[in-house]
Amino acid sequence: MRRTFGILCNNRYLRIGAPAWLALILGLVMMTQGPTAAAQETPSRTVYIAGSGNAALDQHVLDLFQTAFGPDTELQTISDEQATLIDRAPIITIGPKAFSHIRQTNRDASVLAFLVQKSFIQKYTEEYPGQISAVFYDVPLLRQALAGKAILPHASRIAILASPESVGVYEPLLDQLPAFDLQARVFVVDSMDRLIPTLVRALSYGDFLLASHDESIYNPRTIKHILLTAYRRNRIVIGPSQAYVKAGSLASGYAPFQEMADVAAQLIGQFFETGRLPPPTYPQDYRISLNRQVARSLNIPLPDANEITRFINDALAQHGRDEDE
């Protein structure tokens, strides 16, 4: 005898056979449990990561990449030896050392350099467009200069120290500054024994010193002497990075790590769509790091960090400037 069962639907009692009833129950169970493991999405893209050698930094960056790329991209860390086997998939290198190693190991690989300065990677991105790109780590000099202007509204002249090898880096900035009622002069440090005398001349000219990522001038051996010399002459130092603010610079811009990771994910996404990496770029979102202890020592009232950031963004927008020098 065939068994039947009943269910109440819209105030009517419906009789259904056992096979239909079992199918209904199975469907309800599947709906409540969600998709099976076989039906769940698997990553459709693979991106390889070459670490810096600093385990803590690499893990932090990898965690940021996981958030930026999402579940449809598999991130795999690789060694230099494994990089020789990479054919079409892109490689993200963390820091200049990792980029150099991967470049030596696999010259055909598509590489996105992460946490590198523009001065380091620009030669490669210009010679190998579409194959090599980058998310620049250093803050655009125009943005740093405007931070100084936001802190010292009366400022009109900026002093810059440069080595003979880096003096040409500042030409675009010198052309950009007049639109913002600023001008700058570059003082060339011919040798390290001329650093302080050249700095003194620079400080007598500028309302503040704009520091850059010229490691021959700004490094752990020299930064203390530069800062002390500047502050004894009641001059502030802007830049070159957040780390130097902790050492005694008054302020510096910086891009949050997650912002840089998001930009990296966007560039890699374009690679998967076109087969070529887009041109290198700066992040779009910048913040300001301030040393309020130094400001108090120099008796300089500091605006709020968000207020400084707004001033910079408004100034750039008003003049329609591209801060990517």
TrEMBL record:
Gene3D superfamilies: 3.40.50.2300
Domain of life: Bacteria
Species lineage: Bacteria, Pseudomonadati, Pseudomonadota, Gammaproteobacteria, Pseudomonadales
Organism: Marinobacter koreensis
Protein name: ABC transporter substrate-binding protein
